[in-house]
Design brief:
single chain, 12 helices, 2 strands
Length: 278
Amino acid sequence: MRHLRLALLAPPLLLVGAFVLLPVLIALYASLRQDGQWSLGHYLAFLQRGQYLAALANTALFAGSAAVASVLLALPACAYLSWRQGRLLRLLGASLLLALAISGLLRILSWQILLSRSGPLNTALLSLGWLEQPLDLLYTRLAVLLGMTQIMLPVAALILLAGLRGLDPSLALAARTLGAGFWQVARDIWWPQLRRPLANALLAVFALSCGFFFLPALLGGPGDTVLGKLMHDDLVYDFEQGAALAAASGIAMTLLVLLVTLLCLLLGGRPFQRRSHS
């Protein structure tokens, strides 16, 4: 039995090691080498150059905002459909999969058309008399957050839907029958069951959003550069130290994701279990 478990664990462990751990170790090695010697010079350059710190802050801001917004927008519909079967649930699942199949670049171009000064949104507001001049919505942080949230919303919804289907509503009914109030039921019954799916959705959306660099470049302004864009520029335009600087930036982003992972683990807490009393 033990050999069977090891055999089943070997393929996923090899995949994680080859495609997750090994690239991180290679990046760490490259970031610590300078002129053939061990050095922290690339990390010092990262900390001393304001554009890298600003890009890291933008990455955390956009990814965190997209994670919170996606989860909050998806939660009501997922909670409503999580206990239901039939056509409506299948329709939601198919819609989410279809949304994931649409090219991200196509959705970004759609936002560029929608938010432009001569786009449908400004045209409609001007025709209704609500505006005297078109709004500058494109190439702003709002445009970046809208585009990123719209792309990541199906991811959050799928994770929440899978997690919420494991909730047990009979526990809340039993608690109300025994005289528990609304807030007590929410605190002792619903929140312990909700916190794990919420933490999973927040972490997944945040980690995926950290990798976006083309979306802020196409929808944001000059001050909305994220760390991925600087990594790309270092690799493409800096032939001497670009790879090492990009590796240092990648390690910094990895540390950011690990920090958020720790926070999400704290938020998720222990798995919810029924308490039995003899």
